[in-house]
Write a structure and sequence with these properties.
- The complex is a heterodimer of chains A (216) and B (105).
- By secondary structure, chain A is mainly beta.
- Chain A has a single domain, classed as Porin (Beta Barrel), CATH 2.40.160.40.
- In chain A, a hairpin with a 2-residue loop joins strand 8 and strand 9.
- Chain B is an alpha+beta fold and 105 residues long.
- Chain B has one domain: Alpha-Beta Plaits (2-Layer Sandwich).
- Helix content of chain B is 45%, strand content 28%.
- Chain B has a 4-stranded antiparallel sheet with strand order 2-3-1-4, sandwiched between helices.
- About 8% of the residues of chain B have low confidence.
- The chains are: A mainly beta (216), B alpha+beta (105).
- Chains A and B meet through strand 4 of A and helix 2 of B.
Chain lengths: 216, 105
Protein backbone atom coordinates (compact mmCIF):
# COMPACT_ATOMS: atom_id res chain seq x y z
CA UNK A 1 0.00 0.00 0.00
CA UNK A 2 1.42 3.34 -1.08
CA UNK A 3 1.03 6.26 1.29
CA UNK A 4 1.80 9.76 0.11
CA UNK A 5 4.36 11.57 2.26
CA UNK A 6 2.05 14.61 2.40
CA UNK A 7 -0.64 12.37 3.95
CA UNK A 8 1.78 11.19 6.62
CA UNK A 9 2.82 14.77 7.42
CA UNK A 10 -0.82 15.85 7.54
CA UNK A 11 -1.68 12.96 9.84
CA UNK A 12 1.19 13.84 12.16
CA UNK A 13 0.16 17.46 12.24
CA UNK A 14 -3.46 16.61 12.86
CA UNK A 15 -2.40 15.03 16.12
CA UNK A 16 -0.40 18.08 17.00
CA UNK A 17 0.23 19.94 20.20
CA UNK A 18 -1.15 22.34 22.74
CA UNK A 19 0.68 24.46 25.28
CA UNK A 20 -0.82 22.86 28.38
CA UNK A 21 2.30 20.72 28.48
CA UNK A 22 5.83 21.76 27.72
CA UNK A 23 9.05 19.99 28.54
CA UNK A 24 8.64 17.80 31.58
CA UNK A 25 8.89 19.98 34.70
CA UNK A 26 11.18 17.65 36.58
CA UNK A 27 14.88 17.74 37.21
CA UNK A 28 16.97 15.88 39.81
CA UNK A 29 15.66 14.35 43.05
CA UNK A 30 15.00 17.06 45.64
CA UNK A 31 14.84 19.86 43.08
CA UNK A 32 12.04 22.36 42.53
CA UNK A 33 11.20 23.34 38.97
CA UNK A 34 9.06 26.36 38.22
CA UNK A 35 7.80 27.50 34.86
CA UNK A 36 5.55 30.04 33.28
CA UNK A 37 4.10 30.58 29.83
CA UNK A 38 2.53 33.72 28.46
CA UNK A 39 0.77 34.09 25.14
CA UNK A 40 -2.35 35.69 23.70
CA UNK A 41 -4.50 32.58 24.17
CA UNK A 42 -2.73 30.78 27.03
CA UNK A 43 -1.00 31.76 30.29
CA UNK A 44 0.24 29.46 33.00
CA UNK A 45 2.34 29.28 36.12
CA UNK A 46 3.42 26.09 37.83
CA UNK A 47 5.91 24.67 40.27
CA UNK A 48 6.79 21.11 41.12
CA UNK A 49 9.05 19.23 43.51
CA UNK A 50 10.89 16.04 42.54
CA UNK A 51 10.22 13.65 45.41
CA UNK A 52 12.22 10.89 43.74
CA UNK A 53 14.26 10.64 40.56
CA UNK A 54 11.10 9.50 38.79
CA UNK A 55 8.22 11.31 40.52
CA UNK A 56 7.29 14.90 41.09
CA UNK A 57 4.34 16.67 42.65
CA UNK A 58 3.27 20.15 41.76
CA UNK A 59 0.62 22.80 41.45
CA UNK A 60 -0.42 24.59 38.30
CA UNK A 61 -2.77 27.39 37.32
CA UNK A 62 -3.59 28.43 33.79
CA UNK A 63 -6.05 30.26 31.63
CA UNK A 64 -6.80 29.38 28.05
CA UNK A 65 -9.20 30.71 25.46
CA UNK A 66 -10.35 30.07 21.93
CA UNK A 67 -13.47 29.54 19.84
CA UNK A 68 -15.70 31.36 22.33
CA UNK A 69 -14.40 29.32 25.30
CA UNK A 70 -12.53 30.73 28.27
CA UNK A 71 -10.96 28.33 30.78
CA UNK A 72 -9.55 29.12 34.21
CA UNK A 73 -7.86 26.14 35.79
CA UNK A 74 -6.16 25.23 39.07
CA UNK A 75 -4.77 21.74 39.47
CA UNK A 76 -2.45 19.40 41.31
CA UNK A 77 -0.04 17.62 39.01
CA UNK A 78 1.64 14.28 39.56
CA UNK A 79 4.37 13.49 37.06
CA UNK A 80 5.79 10.00 36.66
CA UNK A 81 8.72 9.16 34.46
CA UNK A 82 7.64 5.80 33.12
CA UNK A 83 10.73 5.10 31.07
CA UNK A 84 14.11 6.62 30.38
CA UNK A 85 16.67 5.16 28.05
CA UNK A 86 20.08 6.78 28.49
CA UNK A 87 22.56 6.25 25.68
CA UNK A 88 25.90 7.95 25.23
CA UNK A 89 24.54 10.37 22.62
CA UNK A 90 20.81 10.43 23.40
CA UNK A 91 18.05 10.35 25.96
CA UNK A 92 14.58 8.90 25.39
CA UNK A 93 11.69 9.41 27.80
CA UNK A 94 8.13 8.35 28.34
CA UNK A 95 6.19 10.45 30.87
CA UNK A 96 2.77 10.26 32.45
CA UNK A 97 1.29 13.52 33.71
CA UNK A 98 -1.82 13.33 35.84
CA UNK A 99 -3.62 16.57 36.57
CA UNK A 100 -6.53 16.83 38.98
CA UNK A 101 -8.27 20.08 39.63
CA UNK A 102 -11.12 22.43 39.01
CA UNK A 103 -11.97 24.37 35.90
CA UNK A 104 -14.09 27.44 35.51
CA UNK A 105 -15.51 27.05 32.02
CA UNK A 106 -17.01 30.05 30.33
CA UNK A 107 -18.71 29.85 26.97
CA UNK A 108 -20.72 32.78 25.62
CA UNK A 109 -22.78 33.79 28.66
CA UNK A 110 -22.64 30.46 30.48
CA UNK A 111 -20.18 29.98 33.31
CA UNK A 112 -19.75 26.59 35.04
CA UNK A 113 -17.29 25.07 37.48
CA UNK A 114 -16.14 21.51 37.01
CA UNK A 115 -13.65 19.15 38.59
CA UNK A 116 -11.65 16.84 36.42
CA UNK A 117 -8.87 14.26 36.14
CA UNK A 118 -6.63 14.58 33.12
CA UNK A 119 -3.88 12.17 32.04
CA UNK A 120 -1.20 13.03 29.48
CA UNK A 121 1.24 10.66 27.87
CA UNK A 122 4.40 12.24 26.48
CA UNK A 123 7.26 10.72 24.53
CA UNK A 124 10.44 12.64 23.80
CA UNK A 125 13.83 12.02 22.29
CA UNK A 126 16.84 14.29 22.50
CA UNK A 127 20.46 14.40 21.48
CA UNK A 128 22.76 17.41 21.63
CA UNK A 129 21.70 18.26 18.07
CA UNK A 130 18.08 17.15 17.58
CA UNK A 131 14.91 17.07 19.65
CA UNK A 132 11.48 15.56 19.13
CA UNK A 133 8.33 15.24 21.22
CA UNK A 134 4.84 13.86 20.82
CA UNK A 135 2.14 13.94 23.46
CA UNK A 136 -1.54 13.46 23.94
CA UNK A 137 -3.66 14.80 26.77
CA UNK A 138 -7.16 13.68 27.63
CA UNK A 139 -9.19 16.48 29.19
CA UNK A 140 -12.94 16.07 29.39
CA UNK A 141 -14.97 18.55 31.41
CA UNK A 142 -18.72 18.20 31.61
CA UNK A 143 -19.83 17.52 28.05
CA UNK A 144 -16.82 19.30 26.59
CA UNK A 145 -13.77 17.70 25.06
CA UNK A 146 -10.47 19.59 25.35
CA UNK A 147 -8.19 16.72 24.36
CA UNK A 148 -4.89 17.97 23.07
CA UNK A 149 -2.18 16.52 20.92
CA UNK A 150 1.14 18.10 20.15
CA UNK A 151 4.21 17.43 18.11
CA UNK A 152 7.50 19.26 18.41
CA UNK A 153 10.72 18.84 16.53
CA UNK A 154 13.87 20.83 16.06
CA UNK A 155 17.60 21.13 16.04
CA UNK A 156 20.37 22.95 17.80
CA UNK A 157 22.25 25.53 15.74
CA UNK A 158 25.54 24.28 17.17
CA UNK A 159 26.88 22.26 20.07
CA UNK A 160 27.91 24.15 23.18
CA UNK A 161 29.83 23.54 26.37
CA UNK A 162 28.17 23.05 29.73
CA UNK A 163 28.56 26.72 30.73
CA UNK A 164 27.44 28.17 27.42
CA UNK A 165 23.95 29.07 26.19
CA UNK A 166 22.68 26.60 23.62
CA UNK A 167 20.25 27.95 21.01
CA UNK A 168 17.65 25.71 19.33
CA UNK A 169 15.06 26.08 16.63
CA UNK A 170 11.88 24.15 17.39
CA UNK A 171 8.74 23.89 15.28
CA UNK A 172 5.68 23.20 17.43
CA UNK A 173 2.32 22.09 16.20
CA UNK A 174 -0.76 21.72 18.38
CA UNK A 175 -4.44 21.10 18.31
CA UNK A 176 -6.93 21.24 21.15
CA UNK A 177 -10.45 20.00 20.61
CA UNK A 178 -13.09 22.71 21.03
CA UNK A 179 -10.54 25.52 21.38
CA UNK A 180 -8.77 25.34 18.04
CA UNK A 181 -10.51 25.30 14.68
CA UNK A 182 -7.29 24.32 13.00
CA UNK A 183 -3.79 23.26 13.90
CA UNK A 184 -1.56 25.95 15.31
CA UNK A 185 2.09 26.11 14.30
CA UNK A 186 4.68 27.93 16.34
CA UNK A 187 8.25 28.38 15.15
CA UNK A 188 10.19 28.78 18.38
CA UNK A 189 13.67 29.74 19.51
CA UNK A 190 14.80 27.87 22.61
CA UNK A 191 17.72 28.88 24.82
CA UNK A 192 19.19 26.61 27.47
CA UNK A 193 21.73 27.78 30.01
CA UNK A 194 22.09 25.38 32.94
CA UNK A 195 19.25 26.30 35.34
CA UNK A 196 17.43 28.52 32.86
CA UNK A 197 15.34 27.29 29.97
CA UNK A 198 13.63 29.88 27.81
CA UNK A 199 11.54 29.87 24.65
CA UNK A 200 10.29 32.66 22.42
CA UNK A 201 7.81 31.78 19.71
CA UNK A 202 5.50 33.34 17.19
CA UNK A 203 2.51 31.42 15.91
CA UNK A 204 1.69 31.44 12.23
CA UNK A 205 -1.30 33.63 13.20
CA UNK A 206 1.18 36.17 14.57
CA UNK A 207 0.63 35.56 18.29
CA UNK A 208 3.85 35.77 20.32
CA UNK A 209 4.54 33.39 23.20
CA UNK A 210 7.12 33.30 25.96
CA UNK A 211 8.01 30.28 28.07
CA UNK A 212 10.47 30.25 30.99
CA UNK A 213 11.56 27.40 33.23
CA UNK A 214 13.96 27.47 36.17
CA UNK A 215 15.27 24.74 38.45
CA UNK A 216 16.22 25.50 42.06
CA UNK B 1 68.70 22.70 49.82
CA UNK B 2 66.27 22.75 52.76
CA UNK B 3 63.98 24.99 50.73
CA UNK B 4 63.99 22.56 47.79
CA UNK B 5 63.20 19.61 50.06
CA UNK B 6 60.37 21.60 51.60
CA UNK B 7 58.91 22.48 48.18
CA UNK B 8 59.18 18.88 46.94
CA UNK B 9 57.58 17.57 50.14
CA UNK B 10 54.81 20.12 49.83
CA UNK B 11 54.17 19.22 46.18
CA UNK B 12 54.01 15.50 47.01
CA UNK B 13 51.75 16.19 49.95
CA UNK B 14 49.38 18.29 47.83
CA UNK B 15 49.35 15.64 45.14
CA UNK B 16 48.54 12.88 47.62
CA UNK B 17 45.55 14.86 48.90
CA UNK B 18 44.14 15.63 45.45
CA UNK B 19 42.00 12.80 44.19
CA UNK B 20 39.90 13.08 41.08
CA UNK B 21 37.27 10.66 39.89
CA UNK B 22 36.16 10.77 36.28
CA UNK B 23 32.67 9.47 35.62
CA UNK B 24 31.43 8.67 32.14
CA UNK B 25 27.71 9.42 32.08
CA UNK B 26 25.07 8.06 29.71
CA UNK B 27 22.23 10.32 28.57
CA UNK B 28 23.87 13.63 29.46
CA UNK B 29 22.80 15.61 26.40
CA UNK B 30 21.71 18.99 27.77
CA UNK B 31 22.99 21.48 30.34
CA UNK B 32 19.53 22.06 31.85
CA UNK B 33 19.41 18.44 32.93
CA UNK B 34 23.11 18.02 33.70
CA UNK B 35 23.12 20.88 36.22
CA UNK B 36 21.42 18.46 38.62
CA UNK B 37 24.63 16.43 38.73
CA UNK B 38 26.72 19.51 39.52
CA UNK B 39 24.30 20.69 42.23
CA UNK B 40 24.08 17.24 43.83
CA UNK B 41 27.86 16.69 43.95
CA UNK B 42 28.25 20.26 45.17
CA UNK B 43 26.29 19.37 48.29
CA UNK B 44 28.58 16.43 49.15
CA UNK B 45 30.76 17.54 52.09
CA UNK B 46 34.25 16.65 50.88
CA UNK B 47 33.86 17.54 47.20
CA UNK B 48 36.32 20.30 46.34
CA UNK B 49 35.69 20.87 42.65
CA UNK B 50 33.41 19.61 39.86
CA UNK B 51 33.69 19.78 36.10
CA UNK B 52 30.94 18.79 33.70
CA UNK B 53 31.87 18.13 30.08
CA UNK B 54 28.81 17.86 27.88
CA UNK B 55 30.99 17.56 24.79
CA UNK B 56 32.82 14.53 26.15
CA UNK B 57 30.02 13.04 28.24
CA UNK B 58 31.85 12.95 31.59
CA UNK B 59 31.87 14.53 35.02
CA UNK B 60 35.07 14.97 37.06
CA UNK B 61 34.95 15.41 40.82
CA UNK B 62 37.87 16.22 43.08
CA UNK B 63 37.69 15.53 46.79
CA UNK B 64 39.21 17.74 49.47
CA UNK B 65 40.99 15.28 51.65
CA UNK B 66 42.29 12.64 49.28
CA UNK B 67 39.47 10.25 50.06
CA UNK B 68 37.63 8.98 47.05
CA UNK B 69 33.88 9.34 47.00
CA UNK B 70 32.20 5.99 47.42
CA UNK B 71 31.26 4.56 44.01
CA UNK B 72 27.84 3.60 45.34
CA UNK B 73 27.23 7.22 46.34
CA UNK B 74 28.39 8.41 42.91
CA UNK B 75 26.03 6.01 41.17
CA UNK B 76 23.14 7.10 43.42
CA UNK B 77 23.75 10.80 42.69
CA UNK B 78 23.97 10.20 38.93
CA UNK B 79 20.88 7.97 38.93
CA UNK B 80 18.90 10.45 41.06
CA UNK B 81 19.77 13.12 38.50
CA UNK B 82 18.24 10.89 35.82
CA UNK B 83 21.35 9.44 34.18
CA UNK B 84 23.32 6.21 34.13
CA UNK B 85 26.97 5.61 34.92
CA UNK B 86 29.04 3.92 32.27
CA UNK B 87 32.44 4.00 33.95
CA UNK B 88 34.18 5.43 37.01
CA UNK B 89 37.94 5.83 37.11
CA UNK B 90 40.49 7.60 39.27
CA UNK B 91 42.69 9.99 37.31
CA UNK B 92 45.85 11.78 38.31
CA UNK B 93 44.89 15.24 37.00
CA UNK B 94 43.16 17.72 39.26
CA UNK B 95 39.79 19.09 38.12
CA UNK B 96 41.38 22.44 37.28
CA UNK B 97 43.87 20.69 34.96
CA UNK B 98 41.05 18.69 33.34
CA UNK B 99 38.98 21.86 32.96
CA UNK B 100 41.86 23.66 31.23
CA UNK B 101 42.52 20.67 29.01
CA UNK B 102 38.93 20.24 27.80
CA UNK B 103 37.82 23.88 27.72
CA UNK B 104 40.83 24.72 25.55
CA UNK B 105 39.66 22.23 22.91
Amino acid sequence: MKVKSSSIISALLLISHQPFIYAAPMSFKGSTTSMSTISESYSSVESSYAITAKDSLGVKAYTSKGNGYKLKVGELVYLRRLLRVNKKHSQTNLWLFTGAGTMSLERNVQDDDHSYLSPTLQFDYETKKVYGLISHQILRVGHENFDTTKIEGGFSFYETGYNETQPWFILKAKNTNSLDNQNEYTPTLRFINKSIYGEVGLTTKGDPSLHLMYTF
Amino acid sequence: MKKSILIITLLFSLNSYALTQKIEVLGMVCAFCAQGIEKSFGSVAHVKDIFVSLENYFVAIESKDGKSIDEKQIRTIITDAGYDVQKIEVVSDSVSVIREKYEAK
